[in-house]
Amino acid sequence: MNKPTFIPLPGWRELPPETMQARARGFLEDVRRRRTVRSYAQRPVPAGVLEDCLRAAGTAPSGANLQPWHFVVVRDPAVKRRIRVAAEEEERAFYSGRAPEAWLEALAPLGTDEHKPFLEHAPVLIAVFGERYGVAPDGSKQKRYYVDESVGLATGILITALHQAGLATLTHTPSPMGFLREILGRPENERPFLLLVAGYPAPDAEVPDIGRKSLEEIVTFF
User: Fold this and answer.
1) Which of 16, 68, 77, 159 is 20 to 30 A distant from 144 in Cα terms?
2) Distance, C-alpha 127 to centroid of its chain
3) Where do the domains of the chain lie, and which CATH numbers do they carry?
4) Separation of CA 97 from chain center
5) What are phi and psi of 41, to 5 degrees?
6) CB-based contacts of 142: which residues, under 8 Å, 6+ apart?
């Protein structure tokens, strides 16, 4: 086993408490404005913005630092069309019988249904995949650890980075999602995690009038 190499903590500096509070509050106020958007303007994302957001996602912690994620960026209209057709097929089955009644009741306030035009209208789709295992040069399988947790952390950073850059997003999780691997030509060791829609919201975009749980409802302090 190779001996690990350590370096000084890069870029960290202690901040005064008042600066910490101001930064934390400023981030809170900004991220509170993040909403899931289902109506997009057909405007391209400026060059370089998406790439830097994806680089930010790649800084996420991961099990044994194996970084078991892969992001497929889709801008091609024909590919987006194929994804929409396949996703809506799964969604029709979901809404017409596969989903339990309680699940449909929980979704009702959000106004969702089997129609997913945003999969074609948004300028960018990002298919997020998790590596179930790695593949060595000799073809042997290599273990991956905490894949869902690692990919979820990276996706959360990506969503926040896109919001910080001024773009809207939507997380789409048709079930099953095997069609993504087939359409996008990904290898057998990768499993679709979710489909992230990104772009500018349409000028007339609306979102459901919903709230968030309070701090007391989501946190316990000891």
Assistant:
1) 159
2) 8
3) 43-202 (3.40.109.10)
4) 27
5) -80, 145
6) 133, 134, 135, 136
Phi and psi angles of residue 198, each rounded to the nearest 5 degrees, phi first:
-145, 145
Beta-carbon contacts of residue 103 (< 8 Å; ≥ 6 apart): none
pTM of the model: 0.94
pLDDT digits over 110-138, tens only?
888 889 999 999 999 999 999 999 999 99
Q: Is 189 exposed, middle or buried (0-12, 13-18, 19+ CB in 10 A)?
A: middle
Q: How many CB atoms lie within 10 A of CB 104?
A: 12
The alpha helices in 32-170, defined as continuous H runs, are 49-57, 77-93, 101-107, 118-121, 147-164
Report the pLDDT value the prediction gives residue 107, as an integer from 0 to 100.
Answer: 87
Mean pLDDT of 170-177: 91
Asked which of 20-24, 84-88, 99-103, 185-189 is least confident by mean pLDDT, the reply is: 99-103
Q: Name the residue with tokens 């990506």.
A: 158
